[in-house]
Amino acid sequence: MTTQQIAAAVQRIEAVLQRRPELGLHDDAPASARWQGETRVVASHANGTQIVSDMPTEFGGSGDKITPGWLFRAGLASCTATSIAMLAAARGIELASLEVLASSRTDTRGMLGMADAAGAPVSAAPQDLQVLVRIGAHGVAAAQLRALVEEGYRCSPVPSAVRSASPPGLQIDINAD
Length: 177
What we know:
Strand content: 15-25%
Distance between the termini: 49 Å
CATH topology of the largest domain: GMP Synthetase, Chain A, domain 3
Helix content: 25-40%
Largest sheet: 3 strands, antiparallel
Oligomer: single chain
CATH class of the largest domain: Alpha Beta
Radius of gyration: 20 Å
Order of helices and strands: HEEEHEHEHH
Structural class: alpha+beta
Number of strands: 5
């Protein structure tokens, strides 16, 4: 799609939601993950897309696939980039470049359920989460691009989920095999 086509699509959606805001709330496509043995898991989308993940060799994995933690960072980066690109199109800004890098640090002890020296559980959550956006557009002031990135990031669903830190509900079904 061209920038103009994306802008038109965004404008159509906004017009509909102005008239019928209740249409904005919808169920997202669920992601399912099925264990394949050892530490390998296949995540699937209803459209047939599949992504295989595995753990590094240090955790008994093959080390030849992406890890679930990387998928999290990829989701953060790609969602941020998509939101910025859509907002740029809606504002008539032709981007020359856009790259988003999501990085973090993780304490492996948390994944293993270990405690720190004081006996407190170590968090398995990524720490020092950083999002770096590199953006360029010919003839657009740096301040305008900065504002575009900040608004796109603020409106992006995955970064918003991370910022709000709403805990997911957990349901458990036990197979009686």
